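Q&A FORM
Asked by: J.P.
Topic: structure of Thiol:disulfide interchange protein DsbC

PROVIDED:
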Amino acid sequence: MKNIKINAVILIISSVIALAVFARHVYLTTNSGLEAVQQRFVQNFPKSKDVKIKESPIAGLYEVISSTNLYYTDTEAKLLFVGGIYDPSIQRDITVDRKRALGILPKETSKEGHISTEGRPTLPTSVPADALEKIAQYAITLHDAGPEAPIIYEIFDPQCGWCNRLYSESKSSGLNATIRALLIPNISDKNMIQDVFCSNEPLQTIENFAQRRYVISGVKTDCDTSGLQKIYDFYNQYFTNMPKDPNTNIRRMGTPILYDGRSGALISEGYLDQPSLNKVLDTIHKAK
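REPLIED BY: S.T.
REPLY: Here is the structure written out as tokens.
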């Protein structure tokens, strides 16, 4: 009987040791994998500074966390994935939830679907209309409704999902307004914005991005980027409450943001659906 008890104790101790060894092996394997992805990411994206690599809810996909955004990359760290991961079982965009947990986005209030603006930098309620006119020639016209139609200036990032949704809806609905996009690196990095600006066919490139193809229609080798710099100067001059990105020295703000070309008044901070946008346009027509 005594031998049985001793053997049982030995078996339990052996099992505990085996489990501990296995747990340590899993821990070391997991972390060495993350470290390897981190090293490959730094090699493949040397301009990306101070990013952290974490596992994501999808096997083989890793979070790329910076101070201002959350991306995803593959095991080889050769690709960047921009967008959200949606969990239909809870009907939530878990990427948005993750950004809130990391402090990249503000916390959600108790009101469903509403993001609190408390503590966020405030946008100017208007900018000088003549300042918009000075950089109009460097904007990309997303939708042209003719010379008599009101003009909307949109602060636009080609990889912004809400920007692309607004673009697609405006095009399909035949919006009675001309929309001119002013490029800003919000989700995209500065090099991506420059490539879109210097594209042989900027509007086709934006169409590609809206359809999630992320194909740039050729980049001019002799592109004059002084116009893009004038847009950046406009941001830095009039959006002084917005924080500057230390890597680009450009003020970052959420996209899309809409301003009225005639008065310079702020139309919307963020996406605006077509019925709401049409109501604003009606007001602009009546005031004309």
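FOLLOW-UP: The chain has a mean pLDDT of 78.
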